[in-house]
């Protein structure tokens, strides 16, 4: 992960414009990541007692009632913190009763690394539906954060919902880069073609370079094969990007085999 990607995630977590964090641009990615973790922990601990009281109340009433009350009266930011304190089975039951739109709102404010047990308990189909909603909202940072917490089945359900362009944008802010190859195994030929076309059409060169740098073996070979068959206009855009210094020559070389 690059410093630029980490700064995007930090800006999202603080709900501030990315430009306001320019002062941190000189830090390395690991330092920004640690800062983001510390801020998340501090925000949670500041109101932990209140969140625990709400969580205790939700456990005392039937799941169907708790879900209706949650969606009707509980702000998503509070629901996100409360969810981290629920037992997985209880949280999964409630999530199953909530709308994808509301769960997406909660996801925007939830740190997946704090509650992987909760995310893992949610059915893959539900996670896929929420992932589709988050992609519609262009919440790439949120999706990239949740990839580290979802099961293999949930990852497959989510990847199936994304276009090639969406996958490029998500990959650039992926928290767990060790899952790039797993994602690569799930990509269809159409998605591979789409991400190459999207990189050329929208100048997503940094995003493409990040993806290529993490794909290995057969996954990179598949992408290279699609690059070989790409339309001349796409390949010309790649050549121009390398000449302009926007695309690392090593990235194009990896695709050219």
What would you report as the Rg, rounded to the nearest angstrom? 20 Å
Question: Ranges with pLDDT <50 over ≥5 residues?
Answer: none
Shape: globular
Strand content: under 5%
Put simply, the count of helices is 18
Distance between the termini: 24 Å
Largest sheet: none
Percentage of residues assigned to helices: over 70%
- Helix and strand element order: HHHHHHHHHHHHHHHHHH
Structural class: mainly alpha
How many independent structural domains? 2
Tell me which oligomeric state these chains represent: single chain
Number of strands: 0
The average pLDDT score comes to 85
How are the secondary structure elements laid out?
Blueprint: H1 3-14, H2 29-46, H3 48-59, H4 63-73, H5 76-83, H6 88-97, H7 100-108, H8 116-121, H9 124-136, H10 140-146, H11 152-159, H12 164-172, H13 180-186, H14 189-202, H15 205-214, H16 217-228, H17 232-243, H18 249-256
Describe the structure.
- The chain is globular.
- The chain has helices at 3-14, 29-46, 48-59, 63-73, 76-83, 88-97, 100-108, 116-121, 124-136, 140-146, 152-159, 164-172, 180-186, 189-202, 205-214, 217-228, 232-243, 249-256.
- With 257 residues, the chain is mostly helical.
- The protein contains 18 helices and no strands.
